[in-house]
Specification:
The chain is mainly α. It has five helices and no strands.
Length: 124
């Protein structure tokens, strides 16, 4: 069971490390998308989420402060999920479906991170 925890833990950490670096290397493209979704200060928001994801991913994969890393990632995911993937406000069925999938994925990621955090806190 410990091996499964380690593999899942590292997988999530690497996912967010990759996502954070992607945000930082594609600021122009992603900030345009964020602006189209009404995100305030889109360029700054993309950079901030990139930094939070990168630091969070590093913290999770390094095992030094995974609880802090999880906090940083959840801090970034909550506004992204509600502001960017607000499927309930979209009329086009194809676009709505894509945003609904992204919304559900982010909720699943937040949930998985909270499960890991609970486990980490339980084993102290």
């Amino acid at each position: 069971m410990e091996l499964l925890f380690i593999v899942g833990h590292l997988g999530l950490g690497i996912y967010f490390l990759y996502s954070g670096l992607n945000h930082l290397f594609k600021v122009g493209y992603l900030s345009g998308y964020a602006a189209s979704k009404g995100v305030p200060f889109p360029k700054l928001s993309i950079i901030a989420s990139g930094v939070l994801f990168t630091l969070g991913g590093l913290a999770i994969t390094s095992w030094i402060t995974p609880d802090v890393g999880i906090g940083l990632i959840v801090l970034a995911l909550l506004p992204i999920t509600t502001m960017v993937h607000n499927f309930w406000s979209i009329n086009d069925p194809m676009q709505r479906a894509g945003e609904e999938i992204s919304f559900a994925k982010n909720i699943a990621l937040i949930s998985a991170l909270l499960v890991i955090l609970a486990y980490i806190l339980a084993i102290g």
